[in-house]
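Deliverable D4.2, example record:
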Amino acid sequence: MTANPGFEPVFCTIIPPHVLDTLAQSDDAALAGPARRTLERDSIERTHRRLTTVIGAPSVSLPKEAAESKPHRTIYDARHKTELPGRKVRGEGEKPGKDATVNRAYAGLGATFDLYLKTYQRNSIDGSGLPLNATVHYGENYGNAFWNGEQMVFGDGDGEIFLDFTIPVDVIGHELTHGVVQYTANLTYFGQPGALNESCADVFGSLIKQYTLGQSASEADWLIGAGLLAPRVTGKALRSMKEPGTAYDDDVLGKDPQPADMDHYVRTGRDNGGVHINSGIPNRAFYLVAEALGGNAWERAGQIWYAVLTGGELAQDASFVDFAKLTVAAARAKYGDGDEHKAVIDAWSTVKVPATD
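Output generated by the structure prediction step:
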């Protein structure tokens, strides 16, 4: 399956630009300097992504592992520079080395591949065995991680606000899921479709963490990026799917701005129309479905969301209402009018998104 033609190229980072903007304005040079450099680097990479979309990405030769539905991972080390991909430091099947960051990236790519293959019968990000490449130790104190349409890139963080971006496996899963969205619904990265793009990345990033840890819906913390924030930060993660708006409340970062329902939907021109902010609404809807159904969230709840993302009916400019109605239809198609169907309707009702005509 190939990517649908989008309205604009997508460059997706785990840290929202409004968070980096806040840090860049700090009076503390130890915080402002890395944030400003990260914003500048993100701008360059965003431009590169746009040019790649216009010119076309280089063709990729699929390895024999692709036909066998096995991962083909390669980890590179940028050695604190910004040329991609950097020096190869670990290939598929090679033993772990001494660099924990390299080992975490390798394991996170594998965990993502495993969930998609074993649960959704999807062979890698594109469904056809696409090699999974990642670069670590990118830039100097680079405070972000991103999918650039071709590969994963991880910064080491500044040590003051953000730690190593390979620490949370859900961050790895989140960014790679942007690749899945790219090759399926290709949701426009602005406004509500952009927030759905971010939410799908959070949903499957969380499912990858839960799958890796063997957690049920009730056992999971439903946090995105737990372990990424440095000790000085008053917060537990970047986002909470269970309780949007509660992930952090910090003197420097401010308060988590995510709304939990449509009554508090944020209208803004920043962050591509608030894609990292309003994603809290569909995030909570998924959590509510998973919690109501119990068991492993990657099963019934995950199957419904995956069916919508890959089913071909989700428009690139889909609204929350469009997505909600498709999840209701998918629940009925897969499971009839039972608990799953009711859980989906109730969840969207709770977050005040109309899901039925």
